[in-house]
Input
Amino acid sequence: MYLKMITMERTLLDLEPGMQGTLTRLAGNPGFVQKLRTIGIREGKTLTVITRHPLGGPVVIGVDGREVTLGRGMAVRVIVDVTA
Amino acid sequence: MKTVVLMGNPNVGKSGIFSRLTGTRVITSNYPGTTVDVSRGKAHLLDTPAEVIDAPGTYSLTPTNPAEEAAAEIFTQADLIINVVDATNLERNLYLTLEILERGVPVIVALNLWDEAGHQGITIDVAGLERRLGVPVVPTVGLAGQGIRELVERLDEARPSETIQPMNEEERWAAVGRITGEVQTIAHRHHTLRDRFAEASIKPVSGFFIALAVMAATLLAVVAIGEGLISFIFEPLFDLYTPLAMQISEYLGPGILHDILIGHLIDGEIDYEQAMGLLTTGLFVPFAMILPYIVAFYLALSILEDTGYLPRLATLVDTFFHRLGMHGHGIISVFLGLGCNVPGALATRVLETKKQRFIAATLMSISVPCMAQIAMVFGVLGPFGMQYIVMVFATLAIVYIIVGLILSRMVPGECPEIFLEIPPYRVPNLRVTVSKTWMRVRGFVGEAIPYLFLGILLVNLLYTVGFLGWLATTFAPVMEVWLGLPGEATAALLVGFLRKDLAVGMLVPLGMTPVQLVIAVTMLSIYFPCVATFVVLLKELGARGMAAAAGIMVTTALIVGGVLRMVLIGF
Output
C-alpha cells in the first residue's frame, strides 16, 4: 500500500506569494526556454514565489537561494507541480 | 602578444579581477550589467606582456542583448579565457563554463566570491571540480585580491579541456547538474535579518516605503555633502584666490585679454558667477558650484550600486516603466544619467530591443539633467526659492511620463518583460567606494573643464565679433513670442550644446524673472543633448535613430516651453 501524492499542474502565476512548486516544464520558444534555464530556472528546481507586484507587475521568485524578477508573461509559461 | 579574456555571468566580479590583473581601475558594482562596454588593459602575466579584456557578463554564448553580443564577439579573439565563476551560484554559472570548454580554447577557472560562498555555508571540492572540468580551478576574492597571485601563476596550466566534449543543450544541463551534485555541499542556513530586509525591500508595499526612504536619504545626503563642501572648502578657497585675481585684473588693464581672462567686473568687484572670464567664472563654476555636488552624488551612487539596491528598485518600478515602453531596468539609465548623460546612454544597452533602447535613451536625454546642470539650476534658482526648482523637476518628470506614454505607442517594435537577477545585499567596501567616486570625479574634471574653458572662450569671441547679438535678434521672435524669454537667451541654448552647466550660468546676467529662468532651464534640459552625449547617442541609436530622437527633443522643447509660458506667464 502506498500514499498517492496528489499533484496539480499550475503556472507560476497561479501560485500565491509564499507558495512553492517544482518546475516541470517551460512552455515557450527555444530562446525563452534557454534564457530561463541559463539564469537557473529549469526543470526539477523548486521555485518559491516571494511576491507578485500589483497592476500586472512582475513576479519575484526564489530559486537556489537567489531571487529573480520576471514579468507575468514569462511567469505564465513556467509550469510547476504543487505538492498538496 | 597574447589576448586574455575574462568571461562569466553578469555580476560575478569580472571587473574586480580585471582591475587586479591590469592595475587599471574600472567601475565595479553590485548589479548585473555594470560593464556594458569592453575594457582593455595591459598586464605582465608570467613575464610576458598580454592584453587583458574584460567582457560584459553573459549567461551563454548565445546572446540576448547588445552587451552579450559584445561578449560573444570578444570570445572569438581570445587566446586564453579566464572564466570567472560565482562560487555562491556554481550550478547556474557552470552552463557557460561548459559552453566555453566545448569550444576547445585554453581555459582557467576563477572561482570568485569564494569568501561569500563560505559565509553562505557552501563548500566546493576545488580539486574535484578541476578534475571534472579538465582545466585549473582557482578560488578567488577579486575585490580583496585574494587568490589573484595563484591565478596568474597557474595561467600557463590553462589548456583546452580533454574531459569536456561538445554536447547538445540537454546533455549540457545534465552535465551541469551532475558536476554540481558531486562537488558542492550546502549547509542549511537560517534566515537572517538581512534576508528579511531583502524580502521587505522587494515586496510592493514595504518596498515602496523603503524606496521612498532610500531616495529621500540619498537626496538629503547629496545636498548636505554638496553644501558642506561648498561652504567649508571651496568658497573659502575662492576667498583666498580673489586678491590674486584682482591683481591680475589690475595688471592686465581693460582690453580684450582682460575680457577673456577675468571678464567683466561689476562695480569694480569680481562676481564669479557672472564675470565670464576664464580665470574667474571658468574656475568658479566647475570647482565651487558643480564639483562639490558631483563628489556628493557619485559617493551616494557608488554606495547605492554596491549595496545591490538598484535591481530591487528596478523591480519595484517595473510596472510603471512598462507603461512607458521600457521595463524596470530603465531606471538604471536614469540614475547614471543624473550623474552624467553619457554613462546613462550607455546603460541602455542592457535593454533587449531597439524600441526599448530608443525610448530609454531619448527620455533620458530629454528629462534627466546631469548633476553639473542640476548643481547650476540649484545655484541659479535656489536664491529665488525652492518652489522654482520644484517647478523645473516636476515639469521634467511629467514630460518623461507623457513622452514615454506617447513613444511606447508610436515606436514600432517589441517590449519584452523584465527578467533580472537580484544580487544579494552587500556591505559596500570603503576602498571600492572611494576609488569609484574618485574615478568618476576625475572623469568629470578631465572632460568637463576643457569644454567649459572652450565654451567661455567661444562666448567671449562670438560676443566680440557680434555673432551673439545677431543670433539674439534673429531668434527674438520665437524666444519672445513663443517662450516669453529675451532673445539673448538664444546664446545660452547655443552654448548648451557644449556644456549645459555653463549655459545655465549664462542666463544669470540676462536679468530674467524667476519664472523666465524656470522656462529657460527646462528648455535647456529638453531641447538637445550636450555634444558628449550626442556623440554616444549617435553611436547607440544610429543616424536615423538619432535624427528621430532629435526631432522628438526639439518638438518637445517647443511644446513644453510654450505651455510653461502660458501657464506661468500668461499670454
